[in-house]
């Protein structure tokens, strides 16, 4: 789940991740979202870093976690993300099949709806970190998931994100909560894997 920090990365979240009254401007939505979810992001990065991608068991567990997370989140995908997220699941199934492994069971659906744009921020942002994780994978292991290239570029997605102001006033906090809820799914699955090891 790691993502390059890039220029101007904000690492300290405001108390409770609350955005000032009025919310961020459209041009600063990406920075505000990174700020509001930095602690959640760091927690998941630490959890994912425990997987040894150089050994078959650790790599298969990493793939299983990602497959279960996407399946758990499926009811909350945006329609325009469906084809690409299905592509990610197909790539995960191919990689897991090469190991003869099966994904973790999907989690029960969260009690509330998860904002699809906040969800997409986490899942699509993870594609940037996939290039870094790819370097930790042993030669000869299947890498369809880590090599998957979305047709919607990251800059293209950020343009969608920064158009958040087209929605109602509460939309910004909905997006922040959606991203946090998505990170929480990955974190919970990672903890379940550690507990069962």
How would you describe this structure to a colleague?
With about 200 residues, the chain is mainly alpha-helical. Helix content is about 55%, strand content about 0%. It is built from 8 helices and no strands. The protein has helices spanning about 30-35, 40-50, 55-75, 80-100, 115-135, 145, 155-160, 170-195. The longest helix is centred in the C-terminal third of the chain and has 26 residues, at about 170-195. The chain is globular and about 50 Å long. It starts with about 30 loop residues before the first helix and ends with a helix.
What is the element layout, followed by pairings?
Layout: H1 29-36, H2 38-49, H3 56-73, H4 82-99, H5 116-134, H6 144-147, H7 154-161, H8 171-196
Helix pairs in contact: 2-8, 3-4, 3-8, 5-7, 5-8
Structural domains: how many: 1
Rounded radius of gyration (Å): 16 Å
Shape: globular
Q: Uncertain regions: pLDDT < 50 for 5+ in a row?
A: 1-23
Q: What is the percent of helical residues?
A: 55-70%
Question: DSSP strand (E) fraction?
Answer: under 5%
Averaged pLDDT: 83
CATH superfamily: Heme oxygenase-like
Return the CATH class.
Mainly Alpha
Instruction: Give the N-to-C terminal Cα separation.
Output: 21 Å
Structural class, by secondary structure, is: mainly alpha
CATH topology: Heme Oxygenase, Chain A
From the coordinates shown, what is the CATH architecture? Up-down Bundle
Task: Provide the succession of SSEs.
Answer: HHHHHHHH
Number of strands: 0
Helix count equals 8
- Main sheet specs: none
